[in-house]
Amino acid sequence: VQLVQSGAELRNPGASVKVSCKASGYTFTGYYIDWVRQAPGQGLEWMGRIDPEPGVTKYAQKFQGRVTFTADTSTSTAYVELSSLRSEDTAVYYCARDIGIGMDHWGKGTLVTVSS
After folding, report:
1. Residues 6, 109: contact at Cβ < 8 Å?
2. 45 CB-contact burial (10 Å; exposed 0-12 / middle 13-18 / buried 19+)
3. So what's the pLDDT on residue 3?
4. N or C: which end of the chain has fewer CB within 10 A?
């Protein structure tokens, strides 16, 4: 199982960013993909998850309305898009495979820096 994430991003406040997570080594549609972030000096923060097929999503309340999860089953890739970025969104964003009782495989993380 591998989850390969896209590279680091730098954005201005107010902009949007989209991070990808390409899965391989398992049946992509058989497991949820969770998104978790970690801001500098902070703990892990669960953002939500997506069932790749049929694309059902669940968002942590804090992120509802500003975060969108999508999945492309043809390429086994999940995406998280965060809009109206602010400095507090600077963090490493992780995708992880959700096996129901937890997350067993993680991507290496994507650093998103929001700075003017």
Report:
1. no
2. middle
3. 98
4. C
**What is the side-by-side strand order in the sheet with 67-72?**
2-5, 17-24, 77-82, 67-72
Instruction: Give the pairing type, strands 32-38 and 44-51.
Output: antiparallel
Contact between 58 and 46 (Cβ < 8 Å)? no
- Nearest partner of 105 among 94, 93, 96, judged by Cα: 96
Residue 15 has φ and ψ, to the nearest 5°, of -80, 180
- Dihedrals phi, psi of 115, to nearest 5 degrees: -160, 145
Distance of CA 46 to the CA centre of its chain: 9
- Which distant-in-sequence residues (6+ apart) come within 8 Å of 107 by Cβ? 3, 4, 5, 21, 94, 95, 96
